[in-house]
């Protein structure tokens, strides 16, 4: 069979690209798979950064940048085309089409042309029930939830050290900022009680993010806080394995109903931490609520005081910490790469 994949922001190397290319790589083992992107030189760094085998995929000219008449003939040769939406909905005339939303967009008014384009898609898939709520409401449709794939086989639990870990891009201007400054603020108070612990903040950063990173470093100066930019995946996996506590604050201080895009739309890093037995204490917002069951597989918090109190209580109760760690590992299996691929095979080959 012949498959095509398109993301308008392929070169951002983000969670949406990991989602799409995991499926593309799998299908390429026994089928012809084209990735629509003008610059094929992005293939090698994408494969290295995302740790995805793209050797059998073909990077070809972007057919979605061509006029609609040309696109009609070019897309028709594909058995299936997968589109990762940035909010727009492109026309595709493949035999079967899948549209995927990673972001819980709010569209107050849907054009008739958009409604027509949607009829060309056999399946509209989202990455969480949180995203589903807003996409379904906007488009008056019933989307299917297929959670992002997590490579659980590469994640192991090790001997734990006195580390609180948080993982997320360092940027104050991205769609959903990770709010690392909030974690720094809470940790400073925590450190006064537990000076033998440290906070490690790990994340991607680009040139445009350096002003924010400098601000975080200034806030952290003199405290047991380490800021690590662009850490290789192997070293991140080791941190997951030795950290007993995981913090996440995306969406803090934001209006979830009016700005759902500012929440964590799912929370892959929370699943990765859980898989390593690193107990998640995450904000009770967005997709995090689908990963963490309060006081069973971690804790959900609303305020900085709750995060502070829950963390102190947990590290003082080794029995509870051990129980939650085991439960978190077990719970992470729901988000395996294998389950992700099986769910997609059902709708692709039905």
UniProtKB/TrEMBL annotation:
Top-level division of the source organism's lineage: Bacteria
Cellular component aspect of the GO annotation: membrane
Residues of the signal peptide: none
GO biological process assignments: protein N-linked glycosylation
Domain Glycosyl transferase family: 156-330
UniProt-listed Pfam families: Glycos_transf_1
GO molecular function annotation: GDP-Man:Man(3)GlcNAc(2)-PP-Dol alpha-1,2-mannosyltransferase activity
PANTHER family linked to this entry: GDP-MAN:MAN(3)GLCNAC(2)-PP-DOL ALPHA-1,2-MANNOSYLTRANSFERASE
Official protein name in the record: Glycosyl transferase family 1 domain-containing protein
Organism of this sequence: Candidatus Curtissbacteria bacterium RIFCSPLOWO2_12_FULL_38_9
